[in-house]
Design goal:
- It is a single chain.
- By secondary structure, this protein is an alpha+beta fold.
- The protein has helices at about 50-55, 75-90, 100-110, 195-200, 245-260, 270-275, 310-325; strands spanning about 20-25, 35-40, 55-60, 60-65, 70-75, 125-130, 145-155, 165-170, 205-210, 220, 225-230, 235-240, 265, 280-285, 290-295, 300-305, 335.
- Helices cover about 20% and strands about 30% of the residues.
- Strands 8, 9, 10, 11, 12, 13, 14, 15 and 16 form a nine-stranded mixed sheet that branches. Strands 1, 2, 3, 4, 5, 6, 7 and 17 form an eight-stranded antiparallel sheet that branches.
- The protein binds pyridoxal-5'-phosphate (PLP).
- Pyridoxal-5'-phosphate binds near residues 61, 247 and 284.
Length: about 350
């Protein structure tokens, strides 16, 4: 099953290409082509491509994991298909059917089966991409598009164990503006977050926590993960708007409500309120549930739960990861076998 020459015990987050990718195109008024699997590799692109000049492109991020009994599971793939479709509408990209999206994600994973790390050694990260490849001079939607799905084996996120991270609230940079594209996985949202990330790492923090761009009062999210905090026993998370509607965020809210009987509030969270939290964490496909041990803001460092993993954070992490690995009853139908 795992015949490829990869040192599974030392797998990190390097770009290790796999054998096969999915490829579909859309020309002018014609529908999307059926699409096909083909060898992973480079391709030619017109210098006038809309994606190169005006950034017309979207991505997704998903993962496939091997279970104890060697099945391969995805997590809520239809949600990624629906989200990229919404993004397509915002960016004037001809939408791709979410059901077909799921079909091809499964096909790509099956074609790259030997690259799915053994149980407990990581996951196969799945990267769907839709870009405007046709050339255009005026600022307008491209005349043609390409969709790809490629995969990369990655190591476990918590290699050194489940450790709280240190973050910093920024008033120097914003990630997304109200009514902009922050709620989509628009490729152009990300290059602007690289400098803030580099700067905060130099100061000793893992990432920036962005505030809302209009008032600089409310928590938005963490670089590429959604934000949660526990205040007075309630689970709080910023409401949708300019944040990315994380699929992990949605799952964690449901688990907290159904399995832990918690009150969950999706609303504006002033940053001062966060400083009173008993637990803070962030969520995402890569980050899973990552505990936040401290937050720095204007020269002060606020520490949560003595910089230890909180009880609720731990429970939500366990529930989520067990459902993702098919080790817990899944009343939601979230874990999807690539064979089904
Ligand atoms: C992808 C992403 C997330 C997390 O979304 P998931 O669906 O849980 O992986 C959060 N914030 C940003 C900015 C993202 O791009």
């Amino acid at each position: 099953m795992t015949k490829v020459d990869i040192d599974w015990d030392n797998l990190g987050f390097d770009f290790i290409p796999t054998k096969t990718m999915f490829w579909a195109t859309k020309e002018g008024d014609k529908p999307w082509t059926e699409g096909e699997l083909k060898p992973f590799g480079t391709f030619e692109i017109n210098p006038g491509a809309c994606v190169l000049n005006y950034g017309q492109g979207l991505f997704e991020g998903m993962k496939a994991q091997r279970t104890k009994d060697n099945e391969i599971l995805l997590f809520r793939p239809l949600e990624n298909g629906k989200r990229i479709k919404e993004g397509c509408i915002r960016l004037c990209i001809p939408p791709y059917d979410p059901e077909k999206f799921v079909y091809w994600v499964k096909e790509v994973v099956k074609a790259n089966e030997e690259y799915v790390p053994p149980y407990g050694k990581g996951s196969l990260y799945i990267r769907p991409l839709i870009i405007g490849t046709g050339p255009i001079l005026g600022v307008a939607p491209a005349p043609s598009y390409t969709m790809m799905i490629f995969t990369i084996p990655v190591g476990p996120y918590f290699k050194e164990g489940f450790q709280p991270i240190k973050l910093e609230i920024s008033k120097k940079y914003h990630r997304a503006a109200p009514k902009g594209t922050g709620h989509t996985k628009y490729i152009g949202n990300y290059a602007g977050t690289m400098l803030p990330a580099i700067e905060t790492k130099k100061r000793g923090y893992s990432q920036i926590i962005y505030l809302d761009a209009a008032e600089e009062k409310y928590i938005e999210e963490v670089g590429t993960a959604n934000f949660f905090c526990v205040v007075d026993g309630k689970l709080l998370t910023p409401k949708l708007g300019s944040i990315l509607p994380g699929i992990t965020r949605d799952a964690v809210m449901k688990l907290a409500e159904d399995q832990l009987g918690m009150t969950v509030e999706e609303r504006d969270i002033p940053y001062e309120e966060v400083f009173k939290s008993s637990e803070v964490f962030c969520t995402g496909t890569a980050a899973v549930v990552t505990p936040i041990g401290s937050i720095a803001f204007e020269g002060k460092e606020y520490i949560f739960n003595e910089f230890k993993v909180g009880e609720i954070t731990q429970k939500l992490y366990d529930l989520l990861t067990k459902i993702q690995l098919g080790e817990l009853e899944d009343p939601y139908g979230w874990a999807v076998n690539v064979k089904d």
